[in-house]
């Protein structure tokens, strides 16, 4: 569990791709949640600076509108901020009334930022103790497979979150690679076979390291 470690951790504690996502349990808008209960499916854990702020509101509306897209990819969403559970409830009610969309994924309350600090979600030099827009893509084994960090004044792209998830899922069976701007259904690249025989026997100059392979599809 996070607690003991997190109390020692500096802001932006160095979680890396390949690390097991630190476990925690917390109160959320859908009841108590424990990160390890999500083993067996993909999870996007993301922080936002504050409830009742303009950019965050657009992000939550966009994510709630795309809920079925994440569901199709067997990926759960979990949000987190320093705000209290009752603030989350009031904000979700406002979003429902104003934008006609219900945010049904859990929003965790992290009033002491014990989780936010353990995940490096708190900007180290920020006078404001709020989380920045950090996003962790966690695989069904609980391993961090990708992460992004945006500032408070720039909202994330839901299509890019879905594309990243598609790419992570497509390369999962290996040994294939997702090229720049790859989208579902497009060709993946083969993992280069690094041997001198392959290099010398390749027809074209780049053929030994640049080869298209099967089209990525949803599993
Ligand atoms: C926003 O979500 O609009 C926001 C949050 C914190 C600081 C600045 C903007």
From TrEMBL:
InterPro entries: AhpC/TSA, Peroxiredoxin, Peroxiredoxin_AhpC-typ, Thioredoxin-like_sf, Thioredoxin_domain. Keywords: Oxidoreductase, Peroxidase. It comes from the Bacteria. Residues 15-170 form the Thioredoxin domain. One of its GO terms (molecular function) is thioredoxin-dependent peroxiredoxin activity. It holds the Pfam family AhpC-TSA. NCBIfam families: PRK13189.1. Belongs to the peroxiredoxin family. AhpC/Prx1 subfamily. Thiol-specific peroxidase that catalyzes the reduction of hydrogen peroxide and organic hydroperoxides to water and alcohols, respectively. Plays a role in cell protection against oxidative stress by detoxifying peroxides. This is Thioredoxin peroxidase. It comes from Qipengyuania pacifica.
